[in-house]
Q: What sequence folds into this?
């Protein structure tokens, strides 16, 4: 695959604090790259450095094999950004807002009109084009924010936590829109601290913590790092703690906990672990209400690598 | 072009306050223009007086009454104390004089009996008192010459008939020019408020942190964007100024088609440049749109009151005027007042006006420098 963005040894320092520490990664054409990390991990700073909105202390950034600088207008033409905070004019209608941001890239009026209609349809704002931002709900406002960022049909799109504080319906709408953008050939860099979104959307994920890459790869590759094959959870009202030791001795079990009537058993490897565990419960005549099995999540990976939760 | 187009769209949203400021300007100016008459022509005025004569109507007494009647309006009243008091209270008469019994006889003997007077204390009453004093002092001079009654009266009448002719040599239509100055003084408020409101609103929208970030990462060159924004704002200020100048032609009329009118226009143009710089400074400083209205009130209303846009400078206390020196409006309004009294237009007479215009331009330069410092600091 063609390399579109190349970040090498990027370092950003604020006085004594290193916001980004020797960060290196590549972004390939047509992929959705997820930048995952807790708040303050350096996701937004990385994006701001790539976009030349922030000066960086060390390293280099190349986009389309050219150095990215504040006056690299040819590169900027191909970039669209959707920031975490909504960036629209309160005094303009939905249509006029998209027209302005699209107009910063495209001066041809007819072409712009066509592009605006494309963006409006993509985010589902057709019925609201004459509305002012203050008349829109939070979710619709986020959609407008996205439309403003992608109306000029950029080849690279940066999405910086676009679903923060959005209702589930709008969130699904936004995620569908992002999938459509990928289908249209755009390369997407998606930052979030919602691991479900990353798992759902991203081809590759880079996990950041304290400005450093702590892991990168596909979601499956990352989950393999967690040293967890399966997590079995059982709701048991009456449980004798003597069973904990016995369960721990079962093959491939690495950890057993019982809290608030919930027994959790973690398997590092093995097949048919759930069936085998249910056989054990039957044999020991332990009554249970619900039982379910989970594959490891990226949060487990993060927990394994850093000892803390993603949303800490 | 998109920047200009968006600028217009935002201006369209705040057209109501601009119309409101213009209506205030037209309304206040019209009221002032229609009521103010400062023409330097002189017209004779006569006080309203009432004479109570207790003497016989002859000799000096007759001469005095005739003189007072010729130079005043004699009012007829009922000869009762109540009617006389009411007339003074309601200012139906300005001056009441009571000639005592045997005034003529005693006067010829060299004894001047006291003439009782009652006045309203206003200007016409002083005028009437002056008439009486003038007659009595003239008569007193001739009395020393030991003339007979007939000659004395003749001499006094002849002396009092002398009048000074006053000719106004100035061709200046001060009334029209003062009206023009009134309009342009009011313009201080309307123009300051209108331009600061719009430019601040537009700039605070464009300079909103998130919108600015989007603009910075776009393919539009930042210099081009800034230039377009600057031109859009300047064009707006120019159009607003032009509208107000056209309105001055409609409201004030003829005097605008003169050299004086041209100087008023130039002065207001220099002030418009200064206002534009103030608006830029505020637009780059104010982050909160809700604060704009408060700031307009402080700047536009405050400077209009302190610098004599609403109340003429002559009526303002010296301390207020001293403080007003630090405001550009002071020099603009001072110039308007100077233009209205400009007899002949030459370099010597224009010196002070040009100096005030230069001060306005220095103010504008200072505002530009401060704006640049703030912008650079914010950018860093």
A:
């Amino acid at each position: 695959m063609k390399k579109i963005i190349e970040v090498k040894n990027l370092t950003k320092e604020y006085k004594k604090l290193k916001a980004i520490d020797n960060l290196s990664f590549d972004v390939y054409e047509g992929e959705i790259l997820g930048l995952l990390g807790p708040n303050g991990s350096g996701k937004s700073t990385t994006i701001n450095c790539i976009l030349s909105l922030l000066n960086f202390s060390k390293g280099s950034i190349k986009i389309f094999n050219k150095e990215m600088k504040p006056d690299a207008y040819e590169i900027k033409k191909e970039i669209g950004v959707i920031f975490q905070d909504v960036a629209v004019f309160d005094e303009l209608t939905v249509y006029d807002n998209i027209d302005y941001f699209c107009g910063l890239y495209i001066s041809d009026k007819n072409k712009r009109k066509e592009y605006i209609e494309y963006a409006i349809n993509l985010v589902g704002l057709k019925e609201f084009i004459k509305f002012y931002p203050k008349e829109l709900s939070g979710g619709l406002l986020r959609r407008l924010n996205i439309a403003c960022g992608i109306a000029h049909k950029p080849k690279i799109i940066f999405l910086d936590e676009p679903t923060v504080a959005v209702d589930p319906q709008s969130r699904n709408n936004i995620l569908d829109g992002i999938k459509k953008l990928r289908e249209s050939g755009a390369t997407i860099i998606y930052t979030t601290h919602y691991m479900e979104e990353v798992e759902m959307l991203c081809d590759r994920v880079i996990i950041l913590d304290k400005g450093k890459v702590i892991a990168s790869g596909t979601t499956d590759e990352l989950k393999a790092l967690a040293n967890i094959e399966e997590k079995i959870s059982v709701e048991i009202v009456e449980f004798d703690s003597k069973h904990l030791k016995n369960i721990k001795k079962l093959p491939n079990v690495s950890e057993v906990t019982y809290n608030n009537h919930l027994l959790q058993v973690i398997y590092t490897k093995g097949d048919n672990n759930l069936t085998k565990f249910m056989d054990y419960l039957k044999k020991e005549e332990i009554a249970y209400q619900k039982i379910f099995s989970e594959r490891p999540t990226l949060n487990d990976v993060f927990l394994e690598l850093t000892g803390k939760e993603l949303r800490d | 072009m998109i920047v200009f187009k968006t600028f217009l769209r935002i201006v369209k949203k705040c057209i109501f306050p601009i119309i409101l400021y213009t209506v205030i300007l037209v309304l206040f100016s019209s009221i002032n223009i229609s009521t103010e008459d400062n023409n330097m022509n002189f017209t004779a005025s006569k006080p309203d007086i009432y004479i109570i004569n207790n003497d016989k109507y002859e000799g000096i007494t007759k001469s005095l009454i005739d003189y007072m009647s010729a130079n005043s309006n004699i009012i007829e009243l009922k000869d009762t104390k109540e009617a006389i008091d009411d007339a003074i209270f309601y200012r139906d008469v300005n001056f009441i004089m009571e000639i005592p019994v045997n005034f003529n006889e005693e006067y010829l003997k060299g004894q001047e009996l006291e003439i009782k007077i009652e006045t309203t204390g206003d200007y016409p009453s002083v005028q009437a008192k002056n008439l009486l004093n003038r007659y009595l002092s003239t008569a007193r001079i001739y009395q020393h010459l030991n003339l007979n009654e007939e000659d004395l009266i003749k001499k006094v009448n002849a002396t009092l008939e002398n009048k000074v002719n006053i000719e106004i040599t100035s061709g200046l239509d001060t009334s029209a020019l003062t009206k023009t100055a009134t309009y342009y003084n009011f313009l201080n408020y309307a123009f300051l408020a209108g331009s600061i409101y719009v430019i601040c609103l537009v700039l605070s929208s464009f300079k909103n942190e998130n919108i600015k970030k989007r603009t910075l990462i776009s393919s539009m060159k930042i210099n081009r964007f800034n230039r377009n924004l600057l031109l859009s704002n300047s064009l707006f200020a120019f159009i607003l100024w032009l509208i107000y100048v056209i309105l001055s032609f409609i409201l004030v009329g003829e005097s605008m088609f003169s050299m004086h009118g041209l100087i008023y226009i130039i002065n207001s143009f220099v002030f418009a440049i200064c206002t534009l710089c103030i608006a830029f400074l505020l637009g780059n400083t104010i982050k909160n749109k809700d604060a704009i209205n408060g700031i307009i009130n402080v700047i536009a209303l405050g400077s209009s009151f302190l610098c004599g846009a609403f109340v003429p400078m002559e009526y303002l206390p010296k301390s207020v005027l001293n403080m007003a020196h630090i405001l550009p409006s002071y020099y603009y309004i001072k110039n308007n007042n100077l233009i209205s009294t400009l007899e002949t237009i030459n370099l010597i007479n224009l010196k002070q006006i040009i100096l005030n215009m230069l001060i306005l331009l220095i103010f504008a330069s200072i505002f530009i420098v401060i704006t640049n410092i703030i912008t650079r600091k914010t950018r860093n």
